[in-house]
Structure formats: C-alpha cells, structure tokens
Amino acid sequence: MYDGSRVTDAVEYWRRRGELKGALTVVRGRKPERFRWRRAVGAVSQSVGALSGRDRMRVEEPVREIVLDLGDDQLRREVVIDARRWGVDLDRGEVLPRRTLAELQRIAFLSGTDLSRVSKHVRLPDDREAPIDTAGVIVVGRALADQYKVRAQRLLLQVPDEDGPEPLRVHHRIMVERAAQDRADSQRWFAFARALLETR
User: Fold this and answer.
1) Are residues 117 and 147 in the same domain?
2) What's the domain count of the chain?
3) Residue 74 belongs to what domain range?
4) Per-residue tens of pLDDT for the chain, all 200 residues
5) Which of 42, 52, 128 is nearest to 90 (CA)?
6) Contact of 19 with 31, CB cutoff 8 Å
7) Of 84, 119, 153, at which residue does a domain stop?
8) Which of 20, 27, 35, 144 to pair with 67, CA 20 to 30 A apart?
9) Is residue 90 part of a domain?
C-alpha cells in the first residue's frame, strides 16, 4: 500500500489480508488526528476484539502503547472509548477518570437517567466503592443518547410542516410531544456520558 493513501484505506487493506501488523505499522507511521487516524485505530481495535489468547495480546498491547503515547488527551480518551465498543480495554486507569459505583449513581441521579438501562449492557459492581468500567458505561450512555436522538428525528419527519397547507392532527401533535421527550432524554444521556469524563 503506497504512502500517499488514506490511513483508513491503508489499514483496511492490511485488515482484509489478515495482517494486523501491517495495519499497526501504518497507524504508527501516520500523524495522529481526530478523524481518519482515529477511525483507522478503531478499525484495528475492531479486529483485535475478534481475537483471543496470544494472537490478541500481540496486537492489543502495541495498540495500547500507541494510545498512551498520544499527546492529545481528548484524542487518547476517544480512541480508548472507541476500542471499548469492540470489547477491547486499552485503559488501565491511565486515560479515563476512575469512577466508583457511588459516583456513577450520583451522576445518573443528577442527569436524570435510569441506571438500570446501563446495567443491562455493562456489569456493575455490588460494592458502592468498587470501580466501574468507565469506558463501557460511556459507550452505553452515548449509544442511548444517539438512539433517542434518531427516534426524535424520525418522528418529526413524519409530521407536516406547521406552516404548510395540511393542518396538524391530534396524532401529529402527540408525535411532536413524543419527539420532544425523546430529544430531552437524548440530552440527558449525553450529559450523563459527558459527566463521566469530567475530572474531579
């Protein structure tokens, strides 16, 4: 794969060949940035998530080293969260804030979110002082926020324009109200995920 290719295309080329070392070499050799490079690392993490044992360790640890060496704190956090979507844990407490169950419950209360929605997807400890899987919880929180946002948009697309010739009927007004509720829920879940990243 030639040097002038996009980092995402180059990584995909090596992934298709099943040669993740080549993909790692590409990622190491390109300048880290928040768009294509981040997606390229996410693609490598996706492949790592499908591996196990020594094969996984051979790729996961070099990826972790690349992430820890990043000078951009925000990019480092986002790459760690991207990897967690594929079941890859690149953080050993060096990147994301360490949170306990008690702190998580407080954040959920302040943001007005239902923590039982999170526990369906991420195992939470029984001990309130025990640490949580911060990256995993953020992934779930963002996914729920996106889900509500998309649902609100789909509902509004089915409602006629208020200034149009067709009057709003009762079911249209119900859909508008439901969309507003979904939009508010989306904002609450985004606030929940954002609060988990805030340093104390």
Assistant:
1) yes
2) 2
3) 7-84
4) 556 689 999 999 999 998 999 999 999 999 998 899 999 999 999 999 988 888 898 889 999 999 999 999 999 999 999 999 999 999 888 899 999 999 999 999 999 999 999 999 999 999 999 999 999 999 999 999 999 999 999 999 988 877 666 777 888 889 999 999 999 999 999 999 999 999 76
5) 42
6) no
7) 84
8) 144
9) no
